[in-house]
Amino acid sequence: MKIGSALALFAASVATAVFGISVVKKHDLVSLVKEVYISQQTQVIEQAQSYILQGNNIEDIQAVLKEVGAQASHNFPIINAVSVTLTPTQLSAVKAYSDVRVQADRTGMSTNPS
């Protein structure tokens, strides 16, 4: 049995067991496998990471976070900064604001804002 045929048989079994669908055509099976692969790749690409954002004041940073759909996990009022988890898409949007400085958060803080 060729590897491709074995993979197709395995994928058909998985599709039936997990999704409750019966894959009749090889083309349908290939499409299903591609969808699952692309979905997994997108999840990896959009994996969020923790960052420290610093600006003129916390209120301005909070406004930027609201614009990009994120929320601070911890506030650092003494240095006008917050810790936040951002996806790559959100990070790009935050970097568009020239008054907000971004650094990777190596501590990985995940506490609630205080």
Outline of the structure:
With 114 residues, the protein is an alpha+beta fold.
Overview of this protein structure:
There is one protein chain. This protein is of the alpha+beta class and 114 residues long. It has two domains: 3-45; 49-104, 2-Layer Sandwich (Alpha-Beta Plaits). It has four helices and four strands; from the N terminus they run H-H-E-H-E-E-H-E. A four-stranded antiparallel β-sheet has the order 2-3-1-4. The longest helix has 20 residues, at 26-45. The chain is elongated and about 60 Å long. The termini are far apart.
List its salient traits.
Alpha-Beta Plaits, disordered C terminus, elongated, 114 residues, 4 helices, alpha+beta
End-to-end separation: 61 Å
Structural class: alpha+beta
CATH class of the largest domain: Alpha Beta
**Which architecture of the largest domain would the CATH scheme give at its second level?**
2-Layer Sandwich
Lay out the secondary structure:
Blueprint: H1 3-19, H2 26-45, E1 49-54, H3 58-68, E2 72-76, E3 81-86, H4 88-95, E4 101-104
Antiparallel strand pairs: 1-3, 1-4, 2-3
